[in-house]
């Protein structure tokens, strides 16, 4: 049983502010690195207990150098650094049995803690008309490789996003969002215990169904302002139905996924 873990930071217990997840936060950021690493270690422990033969962890936040390699559980391998062609899902392949998303956050425009979709320049994102955030985009990419996402952890808004999209998913709520910048959080040690148990439980289920992925995918991104959309529209084969919206139709989901990330990167750099 090979287990893939994509690890973000905003959904970790105790985290409610950007300073806590950006290097500019200094000591606050360094503390979040420890909290994030500990939640990932709890997931690895749960996976090992359930019989995982290998665990791959992909650092999926910001510059993707947040997890502390020296503190990582010995049962896992770590992918870190950026850029990576598959970004938050680097390293995923058809050989994985299941995937888990740890420390994830809700999509842009939702009432979750630090809710966003890749960047604050994205107002709304859709795949084939269905609104989604990073959870949805990455779960579909796992589905593209035939890998089911069996567990997610984050706040309650992220959990309901996951339950709507992923049948039978274990959604571990480590904090209740009060608003964008405030939450009622579990003590981190308790959050880790829930994650460990949740992963072990999820992996012991007999059957998993990977997400069905459409053969052709159109991604539609509504940016916060026309200047961002104009910058994104530099990407060949993209289209602008209006001043703030850019669309891209990929030959398959993988192409649409990479196009979405490229559009956002272009918009961000403007
Ligand atoms: Zn993040």
UniProtKB/TrEMBL annotation:
Catalytic activity, EC: 3.4.11.-
Binding site for Zn(2+) 2: 8, 61, 105, 134
Highest rank taxon of the organism: Bacteria
Gene Ontology molecular function, alphabetical: aminopeptidase activity; metal ion binding
Assigned keywords, A-Z: Aminopeptidase, Hydrolase, Metal-binding, Protease, Zinc
Chain sites annotated for binding Zn(2+) 1: 8, 10
Top EC class of this enzyme: hydrolase
UniProt xrefs under Pfam families: Peptidase_M55
Chain segments annotated as transmembrane: none
Active-site residues, Swiss-Prot/TrEMBL: 116 (nucleophile)
Name of the protein in question: D-aminopeptidase
Source organism of the structure: Neomoorella stamsii
């Amino acid at each position: 049983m090979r287990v893939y873990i994509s690890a973000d930071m905003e959904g970790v217990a105790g985290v409610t502010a950007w300073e806590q997840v950006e290097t500019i936060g200094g000591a606050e950021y360094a503390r979040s690195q420890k909290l994030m690493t500990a939640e990932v270690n709890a997931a690895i422990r749960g996976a090992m207990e359930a019989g995982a033969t290998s665990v791959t962890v992909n650092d999926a936040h910001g510059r993707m150098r947040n997890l502390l390699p020296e503190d990582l559980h010995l049962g896992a391998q770590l992918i870190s650094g950026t850029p990576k062609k598959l970004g938050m899902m680097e390293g995923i392949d058809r050989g994985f049995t299941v995937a888990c998303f740890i420390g994830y956050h809700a999509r842009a425009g939702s009432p979750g803690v630090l809710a966003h979709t890749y960047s604050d320049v994205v107002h709304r994102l859709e795949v084939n008309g269905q609104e989604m955030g990073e959870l949805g985009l990455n779960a579909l990419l796992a589905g593209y490789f035939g890998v089911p996402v069996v567990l997610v952890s984050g706040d309650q808004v992220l959990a309901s996003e996951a339950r709507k999209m992923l049948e039978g998913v274990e959604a571990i709520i480590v904090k209740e969002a009060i608003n964008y910048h405030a939450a009622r959080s579990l003590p981190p040690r308790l959050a880790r215990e829930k994650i460990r148990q949740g992963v072990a439980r999820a992996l012991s289920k007999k059957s998993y169904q990977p997400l069905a992925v459409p053969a052709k995918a159109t991604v539609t991104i509504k940016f916060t302002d026309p200047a961002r959309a104009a910058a994104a529209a530099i990407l060949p084969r993209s289209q602008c139905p209006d001043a703030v919206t850019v669309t891209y139709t990929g030959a398959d989901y993988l192409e649409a996924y990479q196009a979405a990330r490229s559009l956002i990167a272009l918009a961000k750099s403007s």
